[in-house]
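Students often ask what a holo structure prediction actually looks like on paper. The answer is less mysterious than it sounds. You provide the chain, you provide the ligand, and the output is a string of discrete structure tokens encoding the 3D arrangement of the protein together with magnesium ion.
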Amino acid sequence: MNTFTNAAPPRATAIGVEKVGKRFKDVVAVDGVSLQVPAGQYLGLLGPNGAGKTTLVEMIEGIQSPDTGAISVLGKNWKDHAPWLRRRIGLALQETRFVDKLTTREILDLFGSFYGQGRAATQSVLERTRLEEKQNSFVVNLSGGQRQRLALGVAIISEPEVLLLDEPTMGLDPNSRQEVWDILRDLKPKGTTLVLTTHYMEEAEALCDRIVIMDHGRFLAEGTLAELLAQHGGGEILEFHTGKRPPAGAFRLPVWRPPRRAASVPPPC
Ligand SMILES: Nc1ncnc2c1ncn2[C@@H]1O[C@H](COP(=O)(O)OP(=O)(O)OP(=O)(O)O)[C@@H](O)[C@H]1O
Ligand SMILES: [Mg+2]
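The corresponding structure tokens follow.
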């Protein structure tokens, strides 16, 4: 069991994970982890395949139940407050399947209607996800990246207080990835709390206030990018020379080294 708590607590806790464990037969997917995400924080969960990221996020989403420990979202537990919580969270699963014979617009209208949203919300999401051109296309005819953006659109159509995204940019081209980042950055001033899983350190770096590195169901390291670099950067510095002597401290980037047990987490460059 390992425990990480946030050192700056004036904000309310949006997500509380307390000694949570989950096992599938002989596989310990999540091994007694604890975590608090303050309201408004963007948290990135990084780790290699099979680390336990999806299992943990799906327990926070109320899709799976923990075997041990407790989870609270916005101060409530799933057992007693599921409808209340469903109205306040947005989620995109690692793989989302929509009904093929609905159009992009119909999918957004449908999910929006669950939250009392009208056509204006659909229009806003179509624009933000750059799916306007595809609004009348059947889902079956969308590309993989367009479906990813539709899944994000469904997740944000209710203007959720807590957003949980499992690999939201998997398979996206660099431009589409940047567009997703922009959408998520735009939500931050609204006070949205975000947990996203990713294999990309640069994605966590671009978006997240705090990063947790996970493997074998446990948390190996956590902190801001600067803290992780200080703890695990190995003390090496990359210097980028422009031909002129840079001012002290400029153009210097510590080389990020993953902690030993997370060796397959990709480095940022
Ligand atoms: N329903 C299930 N039945 C059996 N084992 C499962 C189940 N779901 C997950 N596991 C196992 O639990 C472990 C954690 O899986 P999980 O999907 O949470 O990892 P992940 O970090 O999301 O990986 P990835 O990066 O590949 O998505 C893996 O060993 C996986 O095989
Ligand atoms: Mg996963």
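Residues 24, 27, 29, 47, 49-55, 94 surround adenosine-5'-triphosphate (ligand 1) (CB under 6 Å).
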